[in-house]
């Protein structure tokens, strides 16, 4: 059965249109509730959200859907995605829901689902939910006496704060450090500054005044310039920028220079390997990770296993390979000793633990390897089918020519976005000029084909 609702990371779309209406949210609650209503016990689902105005609408609609099929709902309010994954397990829930469109603007929203083990759902389970969504939901409604009820959990944020602090040694303090934290006016606007303050840091807050419309707007991990500038202006030791649902992080050193996800993973892998904590002889990342990262891991005798883009694919590979460090260059860092999904705040604490433990400046500790020149461009193809463009003869020929031009010293990656009408073109190699030229030639072919 073809997918109509689920994409690469749950269901996502513009609020009040297409797949992100109150009606769809109601039906997702009913369908997912039916799939996860297993056994005779009283079933529970937990729901968290970020700070988008449309979150109220989707939250209440999903709650009604779950209640209608006999599931009790525990409401957390604004809380990071990894907190929902953790609390799904901690509270022995049958299902976890995060209402968020991650790093997208406020107009969008999304629904991410977690199984009782705290992991994102498999393709098979998503297809089972799709079956109910597309076939109708006239069956499976609870009898009047069995309709579910809803309860708001007031201390959900406090539970997550304690969980995050427990991921580093009790003896480790951040006293004397000045840290800028940019929460993108999103789900971590309370918990992230609180964690850092309780550990002893002087905290400079950015993006902590959500109004329902400003999430990710010129702030957070996808727009780290504000964080970098604040680090320089305040003479901070480190900057931490999270995205709207806090499952990804970008860090800045004391000079305001960016430390991306590849560098964070390299730092953690190096430290954990020395301490004997790294499992599986390497780490998992995606096809987007820098070639310099792969070469660096090789110099340590570690292997980089690549997956397609998406943290769920990284997590699947980590589980199959028995590895406990993985992530994406964009800042999704998955440390399976602690979490079942990306957690920007936990990853940031691991970086801070190295800085404190080794008594180094961030610029010394966290710029671990030299990156290979990498160029990434997005081509918006509104009105054209991205897959059809990629399968056209002219685009295929342009890609083949670019690959031949870079040869063994570089690589080309062309893929369609899973959430937008966009084709992403990435090239990397030892020569920045050659990489830029190769990428430009592919973009030219895509635009020419789309204009036909």
Description:
The protein has 452 residues and is α/β, with parallel strands linked by helices. It has 15 helices and 19 strands. The protein has a seven-stranded mixed β-sheet with strand order 1-2-6-5-3-4-7, sandwiched between helices. Strands 9-8-10-11-12 form a five-stranded mixed β-sheet, with helices on both faces. A three-stranded antiparallel β-sheet has the order 17-19-18. Helix 5 crosses helix 6 and helix 14 packs antiparallel against helix 15. The relative contact order is 0.10.
Quick tags:
single chain; 452 residues; alpha/beta; Alpha-D-Glucose-1,6-Bisphosphate, Chain A, domain 3; 7-stranded mixed β-sheet; 15 helices; 19 strands; globular
User: Mean pLDDT, rounded to whole units?
Assistant: 94
User: Judging by the overall fold, what is the CATH architecture of the largest domain?
Assistant: 3-Layer(aba) Sandwich
**N- to C-terminal distance:** 31 Å
Low-confidence stretches: none
Query: CATH superfamily membership of the largest domain, which one?
Result: Alpha-D-Glucose-1,6-Bisphosphate, subunit A, domain 3
As for the number of domains, it is: 4
Overall shape: it is globular
Indicate the radius of gyration in whole angstroms. 22 Å
Helix run count? 15
CATH class of the largest domain: Alpha Beta
Within the CATH hierarchy, at the fold level, what is the topology of the largest domain? Alpha-D-Glucose-1,6-Bisphosphate, Chain A, domain 3
Task: Name the strands of the widest sheet in spatial order.
Answer: 1-2-6-5-3-4-7
DSSP E strands, number:
19
Q: Class by helix and strand content?
A: alpha/beta
Question: Biggest sheet: strands, sense, closure?
Answer: 7 strands, mixed
The level of helicity is 25-40%
């Amino acid at each position: 059965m073809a997918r109509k609702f689920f994409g690469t990371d749950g269901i996502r779309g513009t609020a009040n249109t297409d797949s992100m209406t109150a009606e769809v949210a109601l039906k997702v609650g009913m369908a997912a509730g039916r799939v996860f209503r297993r056994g005779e016990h009283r079933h529970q689902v937990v729901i968290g959200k970020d700070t988008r105005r449309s979150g109220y609408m989707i939250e209440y609609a999903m709650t009604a859907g779950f209640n209608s099929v006999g599931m009790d709902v525990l409401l957390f309010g604004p809380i990071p995605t990894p907190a929902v994954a953790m609390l799904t397990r901690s509270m022995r829930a049958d299902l976890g829901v995060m209402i968020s469109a991650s790093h997208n603007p406020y107009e969008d929203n999304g629904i991410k689902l977690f199984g009782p083990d705290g992991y994102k759902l498999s393709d098979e389970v998503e297809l089972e939910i799709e079956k109910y969504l597309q076939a109708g939901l006239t069956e499976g409604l609870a009898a009047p006496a069995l309709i579910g009820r809803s309860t708001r959990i007031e201390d959900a944020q406090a539970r997550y704060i304690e969980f995050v602090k427990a991921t580093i040694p009790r003896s480790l303090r951040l006293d004397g450090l000045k840290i800028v934290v940019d929460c993108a006016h999103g789900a971590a606007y309370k918990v992230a500054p609180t964690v850092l303050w309780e550990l002893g840091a002087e905290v400079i807050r950015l993006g902590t005044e959500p109004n329902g419309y400003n999430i990710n707007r010129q702030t957070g991990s996808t727009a780290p310039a504000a964080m970098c500038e604040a680090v320089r202006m305040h003479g901070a030791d480190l900057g931490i920028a999270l995205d709207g649902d806090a499952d990804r992080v970008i860090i800045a050193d004391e000079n305001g220079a960016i430390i991306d996800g590849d560098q964070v993973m390299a730092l953690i892998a190096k430290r954990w390997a020395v301490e004997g904590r790294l499992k599986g002889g390497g780490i998992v990342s995606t096809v987007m990770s820098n070639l310099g990262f792969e070469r660096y891991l090789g110099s340590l005798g570690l292997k980089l296993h690549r997956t397609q883009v998406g943290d769920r694919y990284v997590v699947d590979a980590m589980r199959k390979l028995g590895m406990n460090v993985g992530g994406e260059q964009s800042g999704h860092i998955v440390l399976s000793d602690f979490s079942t999904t990306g957690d920007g705040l936990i990853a940031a604490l691991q970086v801070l633990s190295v800085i404190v433990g080794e008594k180094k400046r961030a610029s010394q500790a966290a710029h671990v390897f030299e990156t290979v020149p990498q160029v990434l461009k997005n081509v918006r193809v509104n009105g054209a089918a991205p897959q059809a463009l990629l399968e056209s003869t002219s685009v295929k020929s342009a890609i083949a020519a670019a690959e031949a031009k870079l040869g063994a010293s570089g690589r080309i990656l062309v893929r369609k976005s899973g959430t937008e009408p966009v084709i992403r073109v990435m090239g990397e190699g030892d020569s920045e000029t050659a990489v830029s030229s190769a990428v430009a030639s592919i973009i030219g072919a895509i635009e020419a084909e789309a204009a036909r």
